[in-house]
TrEMBL record:
One of its GO terms (biological process) is carboxylic acid metabolic process. It comes from the Bacteria. GO terms for molecular function: aromatic-L-amino-acid decarboxylase activity; pyridoxal phosphate binding. Its cofactor is pyridoxal 5'-phosphate. The lineage of its organism: Bacteria, Bacillati, Actinomycetota, Actinomycetes, Micromonosporales. Keywords: Lyase, Pyridoxal phosphate. This is Pyridoxal-dependent decarboxylase.
Length: 499
């Protein structure tokens, strides 16, 4: 019996409360064990969870709102920023000795702040814009949406999945405040030509942000191991800011990313200060005001516990597992890597139209392997994304046989054929004309237990997602977005403790 009630009439003993959380957690995908290739980053280091939980507890009630009231937090933040800056080509003795930075809650916040800092450096530009490859993270579009900054997208080559720097240069206008490159892009794990992109930005006098949210804490170790990692950090002239998520390859608990700027002047417009009200004078470096010290202390503990030697070892383990897994994909028959692995991502598609990639994703899930399907987009094929971490190494040998099995089952099942009336319904929809009834009809047709159906006990997300993914791929992006908003809106409904 799972208690979902938030506020019981009578308080419960601690053990009972924890049992309730554990019961809820048992329905989640596994965060440890190396079989979930997205969302989680697991180094499989014994004792690390206990250490970070204790560190989090030490600082959970400390407030990052005021660095002078809690110097412990300021010291830990400065240590994290220093470590990130030195890993990424900054600090004493480098060509970027004045690098500064801030600790944020995640990659999205780091990117929003990079865009804000760039925008606010140019108050004279009334309609600011950014230039990025289509493969740059969706969080830049979110930043543009929040901050009213227009986004100019540059296509990538279907072969290399990289943008042409000349096309990036051509997209820069007088209103452009920021040019973006990724190291690597999340979807395919491909590193953009950072040197060339930063050069065209510098030529135009525009800031250049390198989104190393994913790779910033993995690529430097791979380089030290001798892998051919291209230049992407502050060693590259023209790079003005870099983001790196500690809650990815620094293997810290969620809620910690770093935004670095080449010098303090570039960071100034990131801050928000306000003295024009009767309350305390406010100065915030990041979006949140009150912030828990918990994630920061947990990250600090993780870095200190693992150390450089620990991260090097984890990178070597991850690289070896990745090479093994890439060979398995190459040998599977009917599958193709969309790019040679150059960071810690494996991304593949099908070469055989009889092999339905979305069905394969379901077949792998049925065998306990949770991969991430990505829809076809603008001439790029649908793909499967695998985020590799050190935790994959112990189980990588089991993947090959399961993949072979899943491929055979996928062939036997054949490609998804959407029921004609479902397809007709989906094609008749427009973002403006979407009503709750239409959404409910579509959800029912897809076997999703949303709204009424949820009350009847159906699962919110069916075990098989191939039909849902196929349908989403059939409709334009604007409609996909509206449908997703409606579906999640149906999931996010309050739990009432009284009828
Ligand atoms: C994960 C990621 C982000 C967004 O980070 P969140 O921590 O999920 O907000 C941005 N860019 C890249 C390249 C990423 O991999």
């Amino acid at each position: 019996m799972i208690d979902e009630e938030g506020l019981p009439a009578h308080g419960l003993p601690a053990e009972r409360v924890l049992d309730g959380i554990r019961a809820l957690r048992s329905g989640d995908r596994p965060t440890h064990g190396g079989r979930l290739f997205a969302y989680v980053y697991d180094p499989a280091v014994p004792g690390l969870d206990e250490l970070t939980a204790a560190a989090h507890a030490e600082s959970a009630h400390v407030n990052g709102l005021d660095p002078t009231a809690f110097p412990s937090l300021l010291a830990m933040e400065n240590a994290l920023v220093g470590a990130a800056a030195q890993l990424l080509g900054g600090g004493p003795g480098t060509t970027a000795p004045d690098v500064v930075g801030s600790v944020t809650s995640g990659g999205t916040e780091s990117l929003i702040l990079a865009v804000k800092a760039a925008r606010d450096a140019h108050p004279e530009i009334t309609e600011p814009r950014i230039v990025m490859p289509v493969t740059a993270h969706a969080a830049f579009v979110k930043a543009g949406h929040y901050l009213r900054v227009a986004v100019d997208m540059v296509p990538v080559s279907a072969e290399t999945l990289r943008p042409d720097p000349a096309a990036m240069a051509a997209a820069i206008r007088p209103e452009t405040v920021l040019v973006v490159a990724s190291a690597p892009g999340y979807a395919h794990g491909v590193i953009d030509p950072v040197t060339e992109i930063a050069a065209v930005a510098a030529d135009a006098g525009v800031r250049c942000h390198v989104d190393a949210c994913f790779g910033g804490w993995a690529l430097p170790w791979l380089r030290r191991l001798g892998e051919p990692v291209p230049a992407f950090d502050f060693a590259v002239p023209g790079v003005t800011s870099i983001s790196v998520d500690l809650h990815k390859y620094a293997y810290t608990p969620k809620g910690v990313s770093i935004l670095l700027h080449r010098d303090p002047e570039l960071r100034k417009t990131q801050y928000f200060a306000h003295a024009d009200w009767p309350g305390y004078t406010m100065i915030n470096s990041v979006i949140a005001s009150t912030r828990s010290g918990g994630p920061i202390a947990a990250a600090y503990a993780t870095l200190r516990h693992l150390g450089e030697d620990g991260y090097l070892r984890l990178a070597a383990v991850t690289r070896d597992a990745m090479n093994e897994l890439a060979d398995v994909i190459r040998a599977a028959g009917g599958l193709r890597l969309v790019a040679e692995p150059e960071s810690t991502v494996i991304c593949f598609t099908v070469t055989d139209p009889e092999l339905d990639l979305f069905v394969l994703v379901d077949e792998l899930a049925a065998r306990g392997w949770h991969t991430q399907p990505q829809l076809a987009y603008a001439g790029l094929p649908r793909t499967v994304h695998l985020t590799l971490t050190a935790s994959v190494a112990p189980v990588v040998g089991k993947f090959g046989p399961d993949l072979a099995d899943a491929v055979a089952a996928t062939r036997a099942a054949g490609p998804v054929k959407l029921p004609a009336e479902l397809l007709a319904l989906a094609r008749s929809l427009t973002p403006e004309g979407l009503t709750p009834d239409l959404v409910a009809g579509l959800a029912a047709g897809l076997g999703l237990g949303l709204g009424e159906a949820a009350d009847a006990g159906a699962e919110p997300v069916p075990a098989r997602m191939a039909v849902v993914n196929t349908l989403l791929e059939e409709v334009p992006a604007a409609l996909q977005e509206r449908l997703l908003v409606e579906f999640v809106g149906l999931l996010q409904r309050p739990t009432w403790s009284r009828d």
